[in-house]
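Re: the 174-residue chain
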Amino acid sequence: ELEDAGSYGTSMAMMIMRVVLVDYFLSKEDPYLVPDTHPTGSAGGTILFDERDSYDPDCISWNNNATYTQIYGKKTTGMQYFLYDFDDDGDWDYTAYTDSLYYPVNSLISMGIPTNQWSQYRKASVDDEGKWVYAYDSMYLSTGVPEPASLSLLAIGGLALLRRGSGQALRRRQ
């Protein structure tokens, strides 16, 4: 590797200085958590909490020429886990070790999360150095029960049935 770096005009001192500077400055970076994913789900199903766009800015890969490439790592290259406070009471309700969590909607409803309206929850990401950041987001849980139809829609539907029925009766007489 040193020969490759030397052939690009990079001295050992420059390599060490780059490592120190990159490690120092990038280590100051907090992980990035996507704040607004707005997951939705229905009773009896699951809801997807998707953190795949979250990343850890200090995850890098060194190239042969002593330069680095930022990986923008996810769980496999920097993100260790994600925390969820579904009922926003200050206590973390679930720890996920993957960046995509499918959670049962009925479990959320049993926690007291309201249905058929948007509700706030808190989520956090923790990187491989223990640094973390949190954000608020909102989720929508539906009961799967349709809203009652208005009386005017029922009346229009009833008229259509009456007209269709009377038309059939006229055809039969002819």
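The longest helix spans residues 151-173.
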